[in-house]
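Course assignment 3, question 2. Fill in each field.
Student: A.L.
Task: Predict the tertiary structure for the chain below.
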Amino acid sequence: MFSWILRGCRDECSASDQLKQARDVFVAKEAVLQKKISQEMERAKEFTKSGNKQAAMQCLKRKKYYESQMSQIRSLQIL
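Answer field:
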């Protein structure tokens, strides 16, 4: 099911090594999503200042999508 996460480690790795690698992947993805969220907020502020409400709303929708992705990743990290 999560074979895409554990690609780098095959039979020679222990389970703890695989869990560490999976955690590192999740941490990296979470960092990327956090960066995207902050970028979308900045873009939304810029569009609001320039009077382009439609583009600002699109930025906020993308931000909300990234936040949902992050919550999914966090729920997987707990497991």
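Instructor remarks: The chain has a mean pLDDT of 87. The chain is about 80% helix and 0% strand.
Grade: pending
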